[in-house]
Write a structure and sequence with these properties.
alpha/beta, 17 strands, four-stranded mixed β-sheet, eight-stranded mixed β-sheet
């Protein structure tokens, strides 16, 4: 079975943790332990978030006196892919002796005219108090918005249109290689209509939407979105909260989800199932094997035919 796995940002750096390399390595070791059993019997492609990491690099870049201007988000996104990809690849090689593992810097094509560029919504970086966030916004020209626990920087998040390296990922999978790619949604670029030349843009693509597109392009059997809750909950955080265990895309969309957390995961799962007729599942990282075998998490399946 061919599985595309989308690791949530919590798999790499939990809220409130110091962004030290050792902390992230420990979290990645835990994630790889959960994925190793799946990788032994399946073709696996692993994607990951980069919100905390790209936010940290953006702060460092903005404060670096050696730079005349901070590095743009596409360059910072490439840096996070290299760092996180290396940590994941090393841990995967240790957990799966003899298995070939490749971490691939991946580019995601977006439309220059995407309205998301005028409406920044994607949270990146750490959480600030309201006062500190507004000071940083004035000083650095950031857009900020309220998150569930405080205030954070928000950046444009255009929709992914294509993944440049899909054919390369296909070739690697055909050779038996486990692939880490499309980290942080991929490096966002626009493509020249005539020449195909790629130009980086100031944005961060949602990693779940990119994972869904990648799974579609790779003709994956399953899109597995892993996070820090055991399954999707309808009316999360209210007295009416209840688990959602087996749904169609339409039923999933009928549930109310917070804009910045479960909503993009639910929409990505729904899109993949609608476009391919495959299966998607959402659940806890530690239960990855059980979710893939239908005994945990939320299963998103196609509509059953009538008659």
């Amino acid at each position: 079975m061919r599985i595309v796995v989308a690791l949530g940002g919590n798999a790499l750096l939990h809220r409130g943790e110091r962004p030290d390399a050792a902390v992230q390595q420990a979290n990645i070791d835990r994630a790889v332990t959960a994925l190793a059993a799946l990788a032994r019997d399946n073709e696996l492609v692993i994607t990951h978030g980069n919100g905390p990491q790209i936010g940290l690099l953006a702060v460092e870049s903005a404060a670096d006196p050696a730079l005349s201007t901070p590095y743009p988000l596409d360059v910072l996104g490439a840096q996070t892919q290299g760092m996180i990809g290396s940590l994941l690849a090393r841990a995967l090689r240790a957990a799966l002796p003899g298995r070939q593992v490749a971490a691939l810097v991946t580019h995601t094509v977006v439309r220059a005219g995407d309205p998301a560029f005028a409406r920044p919504t994607k949270f990146v970086g750490q959480v600030y108090s309201r006062e500190v966030a507004h000071v940083l916004a004035r000083k650095r020209g950031w857009h900020i918005a309220k998150d569930t626990t405080g205030w954070r920087r928000v950046v444009p998040s255009p929709a992914p249109e294509a993944i440049v390296e899909t054919d390369t990922v296909h070739a690697l999978l055909s050779s038996g290689t486990l692939v880490v790619c499309a980290g942080g949604g991929g490096v966002p670029v626009t493509a020249d209509h005539d020449t195909g030349a790629l130009t980086g843009v100031e944005a961060v693509v949602d990693k779940d939407f990119t994972a869904a597109l990648l799974a579609e392009e790779l003709k994956a059997d399953l899109l597995l979105i892993l996070t820090d809750v055991p399954n999707v909950y309808a009316d999360f955080g209210t007295p009416r909260q209840q688990p959602v265990l087996d749904v169609t895309p339409a039923q999933l969309r009928d549930s109310a989800f917070p804009e910045g957390s479960m909503k993009p995961k639910a929409e990505a799962a729904a899109r993949f199932v609608e476009r391919t007729g495959g299966l998607a599942a959402i659940g806890a990282l530690d239960a990855a094997y059980a979710i893939a075998h239908g005994t945990s998490g939320t299963l998103v399946r196609p509509e059953l035919p009538i008659g």
